[in-house]
Each structure stands twice: as C-alpha cells, then as structure tokens.
Amino acid sequence: MTSPTDVPIPPDLSRRYSGTPSGRNWLASLPRLVHCCLERWHLALDSAPGRLPWHGHGAIVVPVRRLHADGGAPEPAALKIAYPHDEAIMERHALTLWAGDGAVRLLAADADAGALLLERLDAVRSLQHLPVDAAVPVWGELVRRLSLVPDGRPEWREFGHIAARAEQWSDELPESWEHLGRPFPRWLLESALEVCQTRGAVGRRSGKDVLVHTDLHFLNILARPGLTGGLGSADAAGYAAIDPQPMIGEAEFAVAPLLWNRIPELSRADPERGLLERCRDFSAAAGLDAEAARQWSLAREVDNALWYASKPRHEGDLARSLWVASTLAGRTLPGLPAAHDLPAPGTAAA
Question: 63 has which bridge partners?
Fold first, then answer.
C-alpha cells in the first residue's frame, strides 16, 4: 500500500504556491490526492522512492503504471494533478475531443480532484530538442490535427472564444496601460488595439472557428515513447501536445508562443527579419495565414508586456515582450537589450 507521504512535493512548486491560503491548502492536499488516485485507478508509482515528480507551472505529474485485473503487463502512464484554475478545467475537455490525435491521450479524469491520467510521454525529449527548421513541419502537422471544427459534442460548450478575448482586450489594455504609467509608447498600444478590433470582428464572422491549443510552444510538444531518429527527426506522429489552454477561434492565434521562445536562435545579423520569417515558416507549415498570425502575436505580446509591467522583478520578461511586439509591428523599440541577450520565458525573475 502506497503511503500519502511517498510522493514529495517539488520545491519550485512549494515556493510558487505557499504565498496564499488557497495555494497552501492545495499543496497540503497533494499527497492525499495522489494517494486517492493511485487507489481509484489501480496505479503503482513508477519512480524511485523520494524522487521528485515532474512538474509544470501549476501541476505535478507523477510517473505511474496502470495495473490490470487480468494480470496483464502494467501500462506506463502519468498522473497529473493541477492547481484548480480555469485552464486546468478546460484541459480534459480538449483532450477528450482530440482523443490522442496530435495530443496526449486522456485515460481517465477526476474533475473534483483536478486529476488526469494520461499516456506516458518522453518527459525529457520535446520539440525544444529539434533544430527550429526541423521543428517547423512537426508543429505544422500537429496544428492541422488539433484544429478540429466544432460539432455537437458537449465539450465544445466549455471553451471561450478568441474573438471575445480580443473584445475584452480592447477595453482592458488601455486601462492597464494608463494604470501602469504608460510603460511603452502609445503607438504600440494602438497597434495591438487595431488588431483586437479587426481580428475580433473577422473572427466573429469568418466561419473558420477551430479548437486552438493556445500555448503550443516547443516544450509543450513531447516525444512519444519509441520515437526513432536523431535530432533531425521530423515525424509528427512521434510527438504529442500537452497543456493545451484551449479556446475556439482562428488557428493563427497559436503561433505567438513560437515567437517569444528560442529568440537567441534567430539570425544574429538580422534577428528582426528572422522573427518575421519564423512567423511565416510556421504559419505556412500549418496552412495558416502568416499576416493573421503576425497580428495575433503582436496583440498577445502587448498583453504579456502589460502583465510583466505589473509584476516586480520581471524587467527581462517585459523587455522580451516589447522586443517581439514592436518588431512584429515593424518598429522595434530602441533602448531594449539585443535580441540575443533577452531572457527565455520563465528565467528572468529573481
């Protein structure tokens, strides 16, 4: 029998959630939730005693094996338990619709516990490990598979619409910009607002609604076990998306995370041109409109910039978002660090 104390909590997760009562309550509940899921789904831990589980920003992922009553070989799986928030609630609905085609396969879910039992992917081999050029066709094919057209299944009623997000930004971005002391030039704010107004209206009437994985960056695409080939391998069937943050709308909304990641790998001679070429190349691989992708990415990065401007110790993240947003707008802001000195997401804050 597994004890609730057998799964330690990663220190990074403890630091992130120990500052609020709700976070501390969730951290305290994790050993019990893990233990309950192990019993309910007939699972056994599949890691050495005391070894830290995998974790993301708001969840732990415990390697397990699913035991079969008929005595068959235990099936490798991953038990994910997320901090309660809207994106975590939406995840199981999107994974149900994708049914393992382009995304990690959902084996079981417990909405009350925030727990998902998932197929086991290769946690240390992601699209981050492919050269960007080799990642292009993989990402493009996964987007094609994930871009489901809405139908009558009940899961579709759970997702927000990207056009509605644009309408929300039209009201919120100017208010935040003023409240934060106008942290960047007005012209960049107005560029984002123009995107919100035009693409929001287009999105409402285009008839191009699909299910969109809005956080489809390189680290959120993991290899499936048994993937063969070296660093140049580009078989999309060997990869699956995780952590979807799903919405409904234009698929071009999904391109942005590719542009604010791996910036140091852009051409040193002309990183601004390289960023626009990356937007074009990934869009083409997925059959998307590169201009719409550029516009959505600009608006998303302005929203990110305002979020970072509201937080202490995120100057590096703010600089990165402003470099990406202003470059996409065609007027890279002066006074920012060089592109190759910008921090990767998640590394700038102390």
Answer: 78
pTM here is 0.92
Q: Are residues 79 and 130 in the same domain?
A: no
Q: Which helix (H) or strand (E) holds 115?
A: strand 115-119
Q: What is the chain's pLDDT, residue by residue, as a tens digit (350 residues)?
A: 445 457 888 888 889 899 999 999 999 999 999 999 999 999 999 987 778 888 888 899 999 999 887 777 889 999 999 998 777 789 999 999 999 999 999 999 999 889 999 999 998 899 999 999 999 999 999 999 999 999 999 999 999 999 999 999 999 999 999 999 999 999 999 999 999 999 987 666 667 899 999 999 999 999 998 765 554 445 888 999 999 999 999 999 999 999 999 999 999 999 999 999 999 999 999 999 999 999 999 999 999 999 999 998 899 999 999 999 999 999 999 999 999 999 999 776 54
Residues 27 and 147 in one domain: no
215 is catalytic: yes
Listed in sequence order, the residues at least 6 apart from 177 whose beta carbon sits closer than 8 Å to its beta carbon are 183, 184, 189, 306
Query: Do 166 and 94 sit in the same domain of this protein?
Result: no
Domain encompassing residue 23: 4-124
Catalytic residue among 110, 122, 215, 289: 215
Query: 3-class DSSP state for residue 82?
Result: strand
110 falls within a domain = yes
**246-249 vs 210-213, strand pairing mode:** antiparallel
Number of domains the chain is built from: 2
